[in-house]
């Protein structure tokens, strides 16, 4: 697939194209490559427009500090933090490729950034969502199965949205999803989710487009659902349930919260969620960390031991 990326002048463009090939060889997702190259284009364009232009193999730490401050002043700490991480990855790659001896960012620290906690979907909220689709018609059974898949597997919106019929193993109650980094993984689900999927498949068999490979079909003959379609279903059911705004990623945060609340193994959670970095444990666990801390404190009852 051809992508029309933008490249800055000079070595920024030459090395940027090589970095793109390296990222693709490392199996980075198209979205990750797009974000990384976008950051490099912004940095390179800025560096070449200075009174004293800098190529990537010559740019000093002081100039990079100026650029990070510029991003901080013009945008947000979150954006500056993300750009910093991408820049660091690029210069580390230059070291690996022996284009430079040492990264100019080696002594730099990322801008301080506290990501906002993502609200999680609590069990009573999930119950309210399911109560909006109790029927036996196609739409209710489809939406019920989608909600239960999101809840029981913690699959990302895109992972769940693009499932095909062959990705569902009803004998072992597992979904095979294609996740970030172009990696496949299987996720088990429970009896209630299996029942919801089986009920949906029965009505799906009578759908005019039942021959299509997509697991989730639209109700009006538009083919398989898209990730945006799944987002819209979740939002519509949340509105019907009267529980405020709900988006699919809240299901993943809920899964991580309840897993850790019950003392589940963190390495196992990482495998289920499709994470490579342990940093994600803290990021996803922060949403309801106080609740888990209070539960642990009550169970240990340290104050009652004397």
UniProtKB/TrEMBL annotation:
List, as start-end ranges, the regions of compositional bias called Basic and acidic residues: 291-306
Pfam families for the chain: Phage_integrase
Region annotation Disordered: where it falls in the sequence: 286-306
On the tree of life, the source organism's domain of life is Bacteria
Core-binding (CB) domain span: 10-95
Keywords assigned by UniProt, alphabetized: DNA recombination, DNA-binding
Enumerate the Gene3D superfamilies for this protein.
1.10.150.130, Intergrase catalytic core
Q: Does the keyword DNA-binding apply?
A: yes
Quote the PANTHER family the UniProt record gives.
INTEGRASE_RECOMBINASE PROTEIN MJ0367-RELATED, PHAGE INTEGRASE-RELATED
Q: How is this protein named in the record?
A: Tyrosine-type recombinase/integrase
Q: Which organism is it from?
A: Amycolatopsis halotolerans
């Amino acid at each position: 697939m051809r992508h029309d990326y933008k490249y800055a002048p000079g070595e920024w463009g030459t090395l940027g194209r090589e970095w793109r090939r390296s990222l693709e060889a490392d199996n980075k997702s198209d979205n990750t490559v797009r974000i990384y190259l976008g950051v490099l284009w912004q940095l390179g364009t800025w560096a070449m427009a200075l009174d004293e232009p800098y190529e990537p193999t010559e740019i000093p730490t002081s100039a990079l500090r100026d650029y990070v401050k510029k991003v901080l002043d013009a945008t947000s700490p979150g954006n500056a933090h993300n750009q910093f991480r991408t820049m660091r990855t690029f210069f580390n790659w230059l070291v690996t490729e022996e284009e430079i001896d040492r990264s100019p960012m080696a002594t730099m620290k990322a801008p301080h950034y506290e990501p906002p906690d993502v609200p999680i979907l609590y069990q009573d909220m999930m119950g309210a969502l399911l109560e909006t689709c109790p029927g036996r018609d196609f739409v209710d059974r489809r939406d019920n199965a989608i909600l239960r898949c999101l809840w029981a597997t913690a699959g990302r919106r895109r992972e769940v949205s693009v499932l095909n019929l062959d990705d569902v193993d009803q004998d072992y109650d597992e979904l095979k999803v294609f996740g970030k980094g172009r990696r496949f993984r299987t996720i088990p689900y429970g009896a209630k989710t299996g029942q919801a999927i089986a009920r949906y498949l029965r009505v799906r068999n009578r759908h005019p487009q039942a021959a299509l490979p997509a697991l989730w079909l639209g109700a009006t003959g538009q083919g398989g659902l898209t990730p945006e379609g799944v987002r819209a279903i979740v939002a519509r059911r949340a509105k019907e349930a009267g529980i405020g705004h709900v988006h699919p990623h809240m299901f993943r945060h809920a899964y991580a919260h309840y897993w850790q609340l019950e003392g589940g193994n963190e390495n196992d959670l990482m495998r289920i969620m499709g994470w490579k970095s342990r940093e994600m444990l803290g990021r996803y666990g922060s949403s309801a960390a106080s609740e888990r801390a209070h539960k642990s404190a009550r169970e240990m009852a340290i104050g009652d031991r004397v």
